[in-house]
Q: What sequence folds into this?
C-alpha cells in the first residue's frame, strides 16, 4: 500500500525536533520498514539545513513509501542545492550533507518552480 503524507512547518529552532516527531509518527503508523535512528539523523540534517539556509518562513516535509525504502523530501525557499564537501576539522559545522551521503540509500535534489528546491533522501 503506497503512502504519502505531507506537512508544513514554520521555520524556527524547534523545527528539526517537530519534523523528527512527525516523520517517526508517520513511519510507525504506516508500518514502513526503515531504521528509525538513521531516519531521524537524516531528517535532522536536511531540515536544519533548510532552516539555516532556506530563507523562508516554512519548510514542507513529505514522507512516502518507495517500495523497499522510505523517502523523505524537504522543500525550502532557496534555489541553492546542498553539496557534499570536505569540512574543515576546526569548524563546528559543514558535515550534514556528508552524513546524508554516507547514511542514506539514495539522496538528491529537485529544482522546483519559484526558485525553491526539494532535498530528498531514502533509507
A:
Amino acid at each position: 500500500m503506497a503512502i504519502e503524507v505531507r506537512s508544513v512547518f514554520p521555520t524556527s529552532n524547534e523545527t528539526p525536533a517537530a519534523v523528527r516527531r512527525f516523520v517517526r509518527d508517520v513511519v510507525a503508523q504506516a508500518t514502513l520498514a526503515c531504521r528509525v535512528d538513521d531516519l531521524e539523523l537524516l531528517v535532522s540534517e536536511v531540515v536544519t539545513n533548510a532552516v539555516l539556509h532556506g530563507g523562508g518562513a516554512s519548510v514542507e516535509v513529505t514522507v512516502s513509501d518507495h517500495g523497499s525504502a522510505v523517502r523523505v523530501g524537504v522543500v525550502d525557499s532557496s534555489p541553492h542545492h546542498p553539496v557534499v564537501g570536505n569540512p574543515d576539522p576546526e569548524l563546528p559545522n559543514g558535515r550534514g550533507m556528508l552524513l546524508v551521503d554516507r547514511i542514506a540509500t539514495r539522496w538528491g535534489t529537485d529544482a522546483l518552480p519559484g526558485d525553491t528546491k526539494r532535498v530528498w533522501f531514502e533509507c
